[in-house]
Amino acid sequence: MKKRRMSGPGVFLSRGLLAVLLVLCFLPIMIMLNMSVKQHVMIANDFWGLPRSFYWTNYMKAWKFILRPIMNSILVCGISLVLILIVVSLSGFAFGKMDFKGRRVLYMLVLAVMMIPYTLQIIPTYNIVSGMHLLNTYWALIIPYVSGQQIFGIILAESFYRELPVDMFEAARIDGAGEGYSFLHIALPLSKPILATVGITSVVAMYNDYIWPTVAMTGGDEIKTFCQIVFNNAAGKGSNDMGLLAAAFVIGTVPLLIAVSSCMKYYVQGMIVGAVKG
Q: Signal sequence span per UniProt (predicted)?
């Protein structure tokens, strides 16, 4: 039996609205790509016009300009991600599958931390990092990132581990396996989708963060992150070559695109599992 195609004013209106939203979403990206292959003079004189010839020099200049900041961001995100996944997997398993005194109280405290706005934590975090003499070091970013990004991951992992069948862990205990063996050989291999979801959301948030690096990294440009360097120059604190800055933005998004696309399969699985079990 053939399905009857939906028609009517509502269908055309919804599709038209969807098309407008898609254009609005992709328009800034297209403008950025267009600017990245134009000279600064052409951008100033004919902003909306297409380039008469591609000015690839912008990308060569941008590569030298942001290579070190991109490597700084990748280093910070890489170390932070490893620590976040370790903490999230262990804490999620402890809250989801282990019964110990004070478990509910500790979990409620973790939930309470999520209710505190990010901006209210900046000054206390700065005082702590300053007291530890870590300002203008990579650890000034890594430690706050690990402590802040783990909260959402713990809640997501706890929900996942709690819904795993109890029979698997009981069978492992009968065979003499302890909690550590059950975690490493049963729970952890099954939690790839959830950990991928936590990893992607954390990396995107850390790589795109501008506020905290600006507060904690006030030294030379050699230790600053990608967003710091590019956003500062875009705000007028440095180069005013808009073509160069647009090319820098394009190059800077490549590591993030690679990281997200490589884990997209597990990310979608983790979102589905979290939606069903959460």
A: none
**pLDDT given at position 5:** 59
Q: What's the pLDDT tens digit per position in 7-25?
A: 667 777 888 888 889 888 8
Long-range CB contacts (< 8 A, 24+ apart) of 150-154? 150/84, 150/87, 150/88, 150/91, 151/110, 151/113, 151/114, 152/114, 152/198, 152/201, 153/84, 153/85, 153/87, 153/88, 153/92, 153/195, 153/198, 153/202, 154/87, 154/88, 154/91, 154/92, 154/95, 154/110
Classified as helix, coil or strand, 37 is coil
**pLDDT (mean) for 121-132:** 92
* pTM of the full structure: 0.83
Q: Which CATH number fits domain 59-277: 3.90.1150.10, 1.10.10.10, 1.10.3720.10, 1.10.10.60?
A: 1.10.3720.10
- Residue 209's contacts (CB-CB under 8 Å, 6 or more residues apart) are 145, 225, 227
